[in-house]
Design goal:
This protein has 268 residues and is an alpha/beta fold. The chain folds into 2 domains: 7-105, 3-Layer(aba) Sandwich (Udp-n-acetylmuramoylalanyl-d-glutamate--2,6- Diaminopimelate Ligase, Chain: A, domain 1); 108-235, Udp-n-acetylmuramoylalanyl-d-glutamate--2,6- Diaminopimelate Ligase, Chain: A, domain 1, CATH 3.40.1390.30. The protein contains 9 helices and 11 strands. The strands form 2 sheets. Strands 5-6-8-9-10-7 form a 6-stranded mixed beta sheet. A 5-stranded mixed beta sheet has the order 1-4-3-2-11, sandwiched between helices. The termini are far apart.
């Protein structure tokens, strides 16, 4: 049965957590498909808006998918189903599924943000925004990345083991490191190589992020450990974060995390 909560009211709540004006200029967060006045029957949270995720929402009887990554980035000139983006949009519209993206705006908040969740899983303390936005209010800081410290310094080997265990990743691409202890750590969910100068300026021992290119690893210059854990791996716990936020605020409809693993990268 539909609830009394509309898609617009759900969106308004999410935007109290991560206001749309915090998103980067290239982004496309917010409601992508669906009638804002439509009553919510249930919400499926995901990292990516893909066809199997839409199918799962339909099977559950849910009419909203809230995902971190927006399916529409570029302008769509046609909807013929030739490209996977077109197929997702067509399927969502046909099924009456509202698609809501909460992307770089969720990356840009400390409380309930993507990077905060990484820091929490690693057990970092004394969390602060790594790259604060200009004019950010100290009471509710905004910006990209998070800086924190482990309760005590650990060895390189223990740090890599910690990443694999807490971030559920089988592979870590990283720069060379010696026996220097690691305690202060900078993190950024997704593609965060642009924040390396901020991590180095903060005198972090390690920088955990994803999507590093070959030549970018040289920028560590033996001054910081760069640890690339993979894009999906760095953001996968955002799915449960979104479910918990929605579930804790709305009791009159169901909210679940998708069971679909949308990671396109496989390791053999």
């Amino acid at each position: 049965m539909p609830s009394s909560v509309t898609v617009a009211e759900l969106a308004a709540y999410l935007e109290t957590i991560a206001p749309l004006d915090l998103q980067e200029s290239y982004d496309n967060a917010g409601l992508l498909t669906g009638d804002p006045s439509m009553p919510v029957t249930g919400v499926l949270t995901a990292l990516d808006m893909l066809e199997p995720v839409i199918d799962e929402a339909v099977a559950r009887g849910y009419n909203v998918v809230v995902a971190h990554h927006p399916i529409i980035f570029k302008g769509l000139k046609r909807l013929t189903g030739e490209h996977y983006v077109e197929r997702v949009v067509i399927k969502a519209i046909r099924a009456g599924i509202a698609l809501y993206a909460i992307h770089t705006n969720l990356d840009s908040v400390l409380n309930h943000g993507v990077s905060e969740r990484i820091a929490q899983r690693l057990g970092l303390e004394g969390l602060a925004i790594l790259d604060p936005k200009p004019g950010s209010d100290p009471a509710s800081p905004t910006g990209l990345g998070v800086l924190g410290s482990l309760p005590e310094a650990i060895s390189f080997g223990h740090f890599i083991a910690l990443l694999k265990d807490k971030m559920d990743c089988s592979v870590v691409r990283h720069t060379a490191w010696d026996d220097r202890p690691i305690q202060k750590v900078a993190v950024c969910g997704g593609s965060g190589s642009f924040l390396l100068p901020r991590a180095m300026a903060a005198q972090a021992d390690a920088f955990v992020t994803a999507d590093y290119k070959y030549h970018e690893f040289f920028e560590a210059d033996d001054r910081i450990l760069i640890a690339d854990i993979g894009h999906y791996e760095s953001e996968q716990f955002t799915i449960k974060l979104l479910e918990q936020l929605i579930r804790n605020n709305f009791s009159n409809f169901a909210s679940h995390s998708t069971t679909v693993i949308t990671n396109p990268v496989k390791y053999s």
